Amino acid sequence: MTLLVETTDTQPNEEAVLGVLINRCGKMRMLSHRVVVTLLLQSRKETPCSKGLEGLEKNLLEFSQIAADVLPGSATSTLPRDLKRVLDQVNAVSPSQAEDLTRFVSTARSIQHRLTAPGSATLTQPIEALADFVTTTLLDTLNAIVDGIGRALDHVVSHRQSQSGKQTRMIQSSITELEKISRMIMIISVNASIEASRVGEAGRGFSAVATEIRGLSQAANKVISSLRADYEGTR
Predict the structure, then answer these.
(1) Which of 124, 130, 176, 210 could cross-link with 193 by S-S, CB 3.0 to 4.6 Å?
(2) Does 133 share its domain with 90?
(3) Residue 139 has pLDDT above 90, yes or no
(4) What whole-number distance in Å separates Cα of residue 26 and Cα of residue 17?
(5) What is the residue range of 74's domain?
(6) Residue at a domain's end among 108, 141, 166
(7) Which UniProt key words apply to this protein (predicted)?
(8) Is 178 a domain residue?
(9) 57/114 same-domain check
(10) What b/e readout covers 146-176, taking b as 16+ CB neighbours within 10 angstroms?
């Protein structure tokens, strides 16, 4: 199950991906309880029910898939590479928390295999031990992981806002510089016109050039005004 969230852009929306991941990690609580209940029910049957075993496998597989997305260094994670780096950066999942996820899956798998093994001893004690682990340690771990992913989400939002602020400042600076250049061009054209008038007939050519420069400056001013109006309208 992939975590990619479709957007109008070519890249998935990072905030949306992390939001989905938070919801899925929340679902791991329910999945872990389902696994324990199913194991307990099936262990009380002389012959485990095939439908019950199928449900057990489905829940264990989904839990494992979600865990693979959040475990540091996971080779089967479906998260974008940049988001995996963010999760590592904010320590969303600590080594001990990763061990708890792995422990749950491996223990549940072990009990699952013993359910179908002929002549298997009673499984009540290991299942009860797993249930105690799920309702205490694993629950705390899953809550902490959700908090960790929340920190990653805050990091992504802050970074995006910072980048947006930088772009805004760059645009403002560029427009300001264009306005300065336009004013300088206008001053040059005015000075050229004055100098051309001083030399009379000989400065007619310079006067024509000055007029063209003034026209360019005025056209540039219109473009700059349009840019500023568009920019102010998008803020």
Answers:
(1) 210
(2) yes
(3) yes
(4) 14
(5) 14-166
(6) 166
(7) Transducer
(8) yes
(9) yes
(10) bebbeebbebbeeeeeeeeeeeeeeeeeebe
Nearest CA to 142 out of 17, 14, 31 is that of 31
State whether 110 and 219 are in the same domain. Answer: no
Tokens describing residue 232:
């102010």
Token pair of 197 as six digits:
């008038």
Side-chain half-sphere CA neighbours of 49 within 13 A: 11
Boundary residue ending a domain (144, 166, 188): 166
Would you state the structure tokens that stand for residue 2, as one six-digit string?
């992939």
Note whether 48 and 160 are same-domain residues: yes
- Please determine, for residue 219, whether its predicted confidence score (pLDDT) is greater than 50: yes
pTM of the model: 0.64
Q: What is the 3-class SS of the chain, one letter each residue?
A: CCCCCCCCCCCCCHHHHHHHHHHHHHHHHHHHHHHHHHHHHHHCCCCCCHHHHHHHHHHHHHHHHHHHHHCCCCCCCCCCHHHHHHHHHCCCCCHHHHHHHHHHHHHHHHHHHHHCCCCCCCCHHHHHHHHHHHHHHHHHHHHHHHHHHHHHHHHHHHHHHHHHHHHHHHHHHHHHHHHHHHHHHHHHHHHHHHHHHHCHHHHHHHHHHHHHHHHHHHHHHHHHHHHHHHHHHHC
Q: Are 5 and 16 in contact (CB under 8 A)?
A: yes
d(CA 63, CA 28) in angstroms, rounded, equals 6
CA distances from 63 to 11, 108, 232 (A): 26, 11, 48
Domain count along the chain: 2
